[in-house]
Amino acid sequence: MVTAKIRVVPSDVDAEEALLASILVDDDAIFKVQPELEPPDFFKDTNRFVYEACLDLADGGVAINQVTVAHELGRKDRLEDVGGPAFLSRIVAELPTPIGVEHYARLVRRDSIYRNLIGITEQIKDMAYEGGPKLDAILDRAQDLIMSLHTSDTHGDFEHIRHLLQEYLETPGIDAPESGVLTQMRTGFVDLDVILGGLKRSDLVIIAARPSMGKTSLAINIARNAAVGQGARVAIFSLEMAASQLAQRMLASESGLDSTRLRLGEHTEAEEQKMLHAMGVLAETEIFIDDTAVQSVAEIRAKAHRLHRERALDMVIVDYLQLIHGSSYRSDNRVAEVSEISRALKGLARELDVAVIACSQLSRAPEQRTPHVPMLSDLRDSGSIEQDADVVAFIYREEMYVTEDEWQRIHPNEHYPEGIAQIIIAKHRNGPTGTVSLRFRKDITRFEDLATRQPEPVYE
């Protein structure tokens, strides 16, 4: 007679408790694990309750310890459920060392994925039993379910631009086989700096535009100008574009070489000298890029806090706001979620005392009126973006709406505004509003002042 093997659901309650204890005794622990762990990853409900309380305290900027966590649990009527203050005291007393908090987090996350895998296999088994004529559809669905686990377990982190450029140098083409505290950062554009007075610490700056207007380019141009010109330390969260693509854009902008030719590795010896010089300039900057595609605002906050402790950041860039997820386990709707995100980004600017620049999409409203110049009411998903932002800057390029022939019929004595971008400061909490014109060189994704052009350098 064969005895059925008793199977135990994958879990490690000891690791969960050790992780919680580490958070209670180490101020930085929550920021180390928050990007990797969500409350549903905990097997034991009471441990999940404690972790949720820690997240809420961290979101509110409140110190995490036994007293504050007990108070938060009590406020939610969950203190007795977890075992009261005695439980918190016990896990802290039994904690061997808080140094391994990331290790505990990996154990908890691993078992959570195993449990999810068990659930997915049950779904696949049910689909197979039901059968039916649509075999390909069933196989596709099964594959999607399995791949969802890989996606959920992909937690990216920052890469220094030096490493990204080194990878570029080692291949024929990307697509081919300690300074003092800066009180404010310059954008690097003369007229824009005049109207804004530079980018101030603790400010949330929104760069908004319709697609293809150049909001990503403007944001990374500002990052480059602050990093190269002032030695600013910049963290870039690129949710839409891979880090290697972003680095290639920056390289094209810095070198003045066509981005398509750079990507394909098609450049002359003279152009390669320009490229190497540009790589040297960028590699010496303090620019860090995180290209994790799916991130919550809590993950961004935790990563920024951790890097700030290591490198004392001056600027954080997020591209772009509508791709961020709010607190998924307690979100009501998208409008509320975007409101939460914009408030959190403003909170991040104040917590770290850095300038936060967030790119934002606009609604389709500008397309449906004439002229197509954007306005504050066009900010997509939530009016709270306007409320939370210290500066709102729109990018408007007339050439995106009017062809040269149409322009000449309407303005026969005026030059067609090819490559001209208007930066419209629609909100400025601490200064004037107005419009600044810049040149946009699409081939190298670079904005420039209209009045001046950089001379082409000569390389020996």
Q: Could you state the CATH homologous superfamily of the largest domain?
A: P-loop containing nucleotide triphosphate hydrolases
Strand segment count: 12
Shape field: globular
The strands making up the biggest β-sheet line up spatially as 1-6-5-7-8-4-9-10-11-12
The description of the largest β-sheet is:
10 strands, mixed
| Termini separation | 85 Å
Write the layout of secondary structure elements.
Blueprint: H1 13-25, H2 29-33, H3 45-59, H4 66-75, H5 79-82, H6 84-94, H7 101-130, H8 135-152, E1 159-160, H9 161-169, E2 184-185, H10 190-196, E3 199-200, E4 204-209, H11 215-230, E5 233-238, H12 243-255, H13 259-264, H14 269-283, E6 286-290, H15 297-311, E7 315-319, H16 334-352, E8 355-361, H17 384-388, E9 391-396, H18 404-410, E10 420-428, E11 434-441, E12 446-449
Parallel strand pairs: 4-8, 4-9, 5-6, 5-7, 7-8
Antiparallel strand pairs: 1-6, 2-3, 9-10, 10-11, 11-12
Helix pairs in contact: 1-3, 1-6, 1-7, 3-4, 7-8, 9-12, 9-14, 12-14, 15-16
In words, what does this structure look like?
The protein is of the alpha/beta class and 460 residues long. Helices cover 47% and strands 13% of the residues. It folds into two domains: 8-152, Orthogonal Bundle (DNAb Helicase, Chain A); 159-449, Rossmann fold. The strands form two sheets. Strands 1-6-5-7-8-4-9-10-11-12 form a ten-stranded mixed sheet, sandwiched between helices. The chain has a two-stranded antiparallel ribbon with strand order 2-3. α1 crosses α7 (101-130), α7 runs antiparallel to α8 (135-152) and α9 packs across α12 (243-255). 39% of the residues are buried.
